[in-house]
Each structure stands twice: as structure tokens, then as C-alpha cells.
Specification:
This protein has 429 residues and is of the alpha+beta class. The protein has helices at 19-35, 49-56, 61-66, 85-94, 139-156, 172-188, 195-203, 214-220, 232-248, 292-295, 310-319, 340-356, 371-380, 391-396, 415-427, and strands at residues 39-40, 46-48, 68-71, 77-80, 104-113, 125-134, 163-168, 253-254, 266-273, 282-288, 303-309, 333-337, 362-364, 385-389, 398-403, 411-414. A hairpin with a 5-residue loop joins strand 3 (68-71) and strand 4 (77-80). Helix 1 runs antiparallel to helix 5 and helix 5 (139-156) packs parallel to helix 9 (232-248). The protein binds histidyl-adenosine monophosphate. Histidyl-adenosine monophosphate binds at residues 83-85, 114, 116, 121-123, 126, 128, 130, 132, 261-262, 282-287, 305-309, 311-312.
């Protein structure tokens, strides 16, 4: 008895119908980042487990419950990366990319792995595009990261559907003082907060602010506010960021409860959220992590970055019907050849056309077949035009040029004139 083959729960195939939208999305982001001078870095998908424990934090949901960790044949503990920042910092340190105060503006994309409960917009293998900037400590670069995402939302046609939430976590000293005050307050209200928050209070108290539990939320209404504990440096930094966003005309909401689920942040944190996707509404998130590089063994090096969830943004494009029509069509021309001689001539003609018309998307019929079956395949390919090559056309050195989507009559075109004709009606049209 054979069991039906299945992918792992929460890990999805991206099927041929979906890849054009993925490529459009990834291409749009890559083009945008080229325009801002960011350079791509590619890190391995697997790292030593310790890297994530030390950077993301031992008492975070990711490290405590969500990592895919295994022992390899050498007995080393390895983990499928749950995010990209840790590996990027590791690569930057390993290759000396941030030495001597060098500024690095990097981006990466690829799969990440978290053992979360799968639902719409939340998967166990998901994909991020992330940016990390090293050795710039001012609010100007925080603003640039936000400005470029704002431009991206416009390019994608989803600007009206996303909101920017901002907060400042202050320096680690300021956060330490706040943590003490919060613990004191919550300890005094211990019987009014939920069990999970009681646990977090002991391990990672700031995460209590993240709670979805209504009673705990009500208690938090009277809790000390992080903003009141901000150090002067962080306050000035945050004001500087807000002033730049105001100047750029980018709307934002200050969310004092925004603390993020990873431990490495300091000062600025932000999330772009949408209400169009249900519970998993954060499409892009990040912040500053000025202490991380040093914590990982490097020299003090300011850092800031974010990552966007590709699946969520693709879902948003689909929900808002912002999928450009042109990306669905993968083939412009379908060449049908009838008979052995025509098939041979078709092969060389097609190759010549590919030389002459850059960007041409031409599919040559394979597997022979009757008129009817080849036209059926031409139609199914989505092509705009069919080229027809039979014995008569061969004798006259022409092809039949047949519009498949009702744009005019079939006509014969000489081989010598074909490249020019295709260039005008396909590539530019
Ligand atoms: P994060 O908030 O954990 O941050 O993830 C960033 C984004 O990845 C989320 O906003 C969401 O869009 C997407 N995402 C996260 N988990 C899932 C999931 N299970 N399924 C689908 N999408 C998901 C980070 O990962 C940080 N490394 C971001 C960063 C870079 N901070 C500074 N630099």
C-alpha cells in the first residue's frame, strides 16, 4: 500500500500559475533596491543553532518553540534559519564587511523556517526579502528604509492598504530601567494577568506588552509607559525620524505597545500592517539593532533593517486585485510546423528570431501533431500569435502569422521581414 506523497504541512509548492506574480514581485523589489544602491548578499539556509540563540534571544517564541533544529553527521546542532538578520550579521563579521566603519547596505531574499501553526499568511516555510544596513547610526537611514518601502507600496499599488506603526525601544539601559518598573507594576497585579503573561513576566517582561489577552491588556492600560523611560539620545533619534517622515509626507501611527518578537532591537522599531489579510496582517517589519554586532563578537557597529513577508504581500496583491495583467502571459508567439521539412526549417527560424528579437518569448511546438492539435496547444499556451509553417509556406519562404486573440486576419509574412514585424507587434506592443 503506498501512501499519497505530500509536502510537509505549512511548506508550500509555488506552482507555475503563481510564479509569474512572484517573479514580478521579486523583480520589482530588486529593481527598486538597485535604485537605492543596496547590494544583494546570499547566505546559507542552515547555520549553527547557537547563532540564532545568541542573536534572536533564548526566551523568544522563535528560539523556544519554532526552530527546525537537528544534529548533523558531525554531531553539530544546526538550524534552518528562522530569519535573515542573524546570518547576515554573521556573514558581515566573518568577511570583515563592516570593519573600519565601512557602510554596508545589503539585501537578501529566500526561504525562512518557523514551526508555527499554519494558517492564511502564516507558514512553516515562508519567504522574506530583507535589508540590513551597517555603520550608520542616524535617523536618516531609518527614514530611508521606510521611504523606500513607501515607494515600493506605490509601485505595487497597495499604498492605501498599509499603515506604518512606529515605536522606540530606547537604548538597552533605558529599556532595563523600564523593564524593572514594568515588572514591579505587573507583579503587583499578578492575579489579574493571564498565565502566559505571568510566564513572560519572568522570562521576557517586555513581551507582555504584546499580549492579545483582553484582561491583561486592560491592566496594561495603567502600566508605566516605555516612552516615559526613553533616554535623551533615543528620544532625539526618534524625533529625528518622525521629522523626516513628516517631511516625506509618510503617515504613521505611534504604537507604544510595539516591542517586536526578537530581542536584538534598540531605538527604532516599525511594522507595516494591513487589515486586508485577517490575523496575519504584518507585511513588513524591522528596526534598529545597535548592540547586535558587538554582542556577536564584533566591534560596536550600529545596524538597522527590516524584512517583508513575500507570501503576505502576494496575498495582498491578489486581494486588492493589483496583479498586472501582462505578467500572466508567458508566451508571445507559438510556432506550429507541419511535416518534417517544415519542422526542421521552424527550428532554425525560431533560433534566428531569438537572435534578432531580444526579449521575444517564443514557444516552438514539440511532439508534432495535426493542425487541430497544434492550434489547440497554441491557444492554451496563452500566446498572442501563432506562426504557421507548412509545405506551402516553406516553398515561398513565408510564415502564416495568425492572431490568436482576435486582433485581425491571418497574413503571410516573408522570413526576411519577420523579425521586424515581431519586434513591433510583440515586444513593444
Ligand atoms: P519578523 O517580524 O519575524 O522579523 O519577520 C518579518 C516578516 O516576515 C513579518 O512581518 C512577516 O511579513 C513575515 N513572516 C514572519 N513569519 C512568517 C510566517 N510564519 N509566515 C509567513 N510570513 C512570515 C524578522 O524576521 C527580522 N529579521 C526583520 C529584521 C531585519 N529586523 C531587522 N532587520
Amino acid at each position: 500500500m503506498s501512501k499519497t506523497l505530500q509536502a510537509i504541512r505549512g511548506m508550500n509548492d509555488i506552482l507555475p500559475e503563481q510564479t509569474p506574480l512572484w517573479r514580478y514581485f521579486e523583480g520589482t523589489v530588486a529593481g527598486l533596491l538597485d535604485g537605492y544602491g543596496y547590494r544583494q548578499i546570499r547566505m546559507p539556509i542552515v547555520e549553527f543553532t547557537d547563532l540564532f540563540k545568541r542573536s534572536i534571544g533564548e526566551v523568544t517564541d522563535i528560539v523556544e518553540k519554532e526552530m527546525y533544529t537537528f544534529e548533523d553527521r558531525n554531531g553539530d546542532s544546526l538550524t534552518l534559519r528562522p530569519e535573515g538578520t542573524a546570518a547576515c550579521v554573521r556573514a558581515v563579521l566573518e568577511h570583515g564587511l563592516s570593519g573600519g566603519g565601512q557602510v554596508q547596505k545589503l539585501w537578501y531574499m529566500g526561504p525562512m523556517f518557523r514551526h508555527e501553526r499554519p494558517q492564511k499568511g502564516r507558514y512553516r516555510q515562508f519567504h522574506q526579502i530583507g535589508l540590513e544596513v551597517f555603520n550608520l547610526d542616524g535617523p536618516d537611514i531609518d527614514a530611508e528604509l521606510i521611504v523606500l518601502t513607501w515607494r515600493l507600496w506605490k509601485l505595487l499599488g497597495i499604498r492605501d492598504a498599509v499603515t506604518l506603526e512606529l515605536n522606540s525601544l530606547g537604548t538597552s539601559e533605558a529599556r532595563g530601567r523600564y523593564r524593572e518598573a514594568l515588572v514591579e507594576f505587573l507583579t503587583a497585579h499578578l492575579d489579574q494577568i493571564d498565565e502566559d503573561s505571568q510566564r513572560r513576566l519572568k522570562t521576557n517582561p517586555l513581551r507582555v506588552l504584546d499580549t492579545k489577552h483582553p484582561e491583561t491588556q486592560a491592566v496594561l492600560g495603567n502600566a508605566p509607559k516605555l516612552a516615559d523611560y526613553l533616554d535623551e539620545e533615543s528620544r532625539v533619534h526618534f524625533e529625528g525620524l518622525k521629522a523626516r517622515l513628516d517631511a516625506a509626507g509618510i503617515p504613521y501611527v505611534i504604537n507604544p505597545k510595539l516591542v517586536r518578537g526578537l530581542d536584538y532591537y534598540s531605538k527604532t522599531v516599525f511594522e507595516w500592517v494591513t487589515d486586508k489579510l485577517g490575523a496575519q496582517g504584518t507585511v513588513c517589519a524591522g528596526g534598529r539593532y545597535d548592540g547586535l554586532v558587538e554582542q556577536m563578537g564584533g566591534k560596536p557597529t550600529p545596524g538597522v533593517g527590516f524584512a517583508m513577508g513575500i507570501e503576505r504581500l502576494i496575498l495582498l496583491l491578489e486581494t486588492l486585485e493589483q496583479v498586472p495583467e501582462s505578467i500572466a502571459r508567458q508566451v508571445d508567439i507559438y510556432l506550429c510546423a507541419f511535416g518534417e521539412q517544415a519542422e526542421l526549417a521552424g527550428l532554425t527560424l525560431a533560433e534566428r528570431l531569438r537572435d534578432q528579437v531580444p526579449g521575444l518569448r517564443l514557444m516552438v511546438n514539440a511532439g508534432a501533431g495535426s493542425f487541430k492539435s497544434q492550434f489547440k496547444k497554441a491557444d492554451k499556451s496563452g500566446a498572442l500569435y501563432a506562426l504557421i509553417l507548412g509545405d506551402d509556406e516553406l516553398a515561398q519562404q513565408v510564415v502564416g502569422f495568425k492572431p490568436l486573440r482576435g486582433q485581425g486576419e491571418q497574413q503571410n509574412i516573408a522570413w526576411s521581414a519577420l523579425a521586424d514585424h515581431l519586434a513591433t507587434c510583440v515586444v513593444q506592443g
